[in-house]
Specification:
This protein has helices spanning 3-22, 47-64, and strands spanning 30-32, 38-40, 74-75, 77-83, 86-87, 95-100, 112-115, 121-123, 133-134, 136-143, 146-148, 153-155, 173-176, 182-189. With 192 residues, it is of the alpha+beta class. The strands form five sheets. Strands 4, 5, 8 and 14 form a four-stranded mixed beta sheet that branches. The protein has a four-stranded antiparallel beta sheet with strand order 7-6-10-13, with no helix packed on it. Strand 4 and strand 5 form a beta hairpin. It contains two helices and 14 strands, in the order αββαββββββββββββ. The N and C termini lie far apart (126 Å).
């Protein structure tokens, strides 16, 4: 063999040996980086991923332990409103609000109100539709404006001209007892 042939054969065998370091053999749990440095082959989830998933689970668990908001027990309060002898139509609802005679509960304030529905009937709502009001003495006020469906607000000029919108002068009073639904019956209002 001459020198040139020996040199080519040596270079070729070196390249093959070098290349075989980068090709993992069957069943091997390691690979080699580009620089030939050994590194662990990734099998499944790594330590960093476990830490990330664990942190997310702890955060979610911490958020779900929140106590539900305080709710007072309520009792149903219903009635039917007539204006000038005619039941208020559902197309132009009238707003009914309940004002606690004792004033606002500063710690657990509630707002109880309703819009009249079919035939002027109403069911007062505090926390959810038609659930009623907490026990106590109430004054009812009435305002007959317009429902703006776009902004979902009730406002506009009062067709009752403010006669029944002041809780200090309202004559519509009711006492609600715990666990006992109350029906105000027929409530007659006038526009004149």
């Amino acid at each position: 063999m001459n020198f040139v042939t020996e040199r080519i054969r040596t270079d070729r065998s070196r390249r093959q040996a070098s290349a075989s370091r980068f090709i993992p053999r069957a069943g091997q749990n390691e690979t080699f980086g580009l620089a030939g440095v050994r590194r662990a082959k990734s099998i499944g989830v790594g330590r960093g991923q476990y830490i990330f998933i664990g942190t997310i689970m702890l955060l979610l668990a911490g958020c779900s332990g929140e106590e539900p908001p305080y709710r007072k027990e309520t009792s149903g309060l219903t009635g039917q409103v007539f204006v000038d002898g005619v039941a208020v139509p559902a197309t132009t609802p009238l707003k009914v609000e309940c004002h606690n005679v004792a004033g606002f509960d500063q710690e657990h304030t509630t707002i109880s109100s309703a819009l009249t529905g079919e035939d002027g009937k109403f069911e007062i709502s505090t926390y959810e539709t038609g659930d009623g009001v907490p026990e106590g003495d109430y004054v009812l006020t009435f305002m007959w404006g317009k429902m703006d469906l776009f902004s979902r607000s009730y406002s506009g000029p009062d067709q009752l001209k403010g006669k029944y919108s002041d809780e200090k002068t309202s004559t519509f009073k009711v006492t609600v007892k715990r666990g006992e639904p109350s029906d105000m019956g027929r409530i007659d209002l006038v526009t004149k």
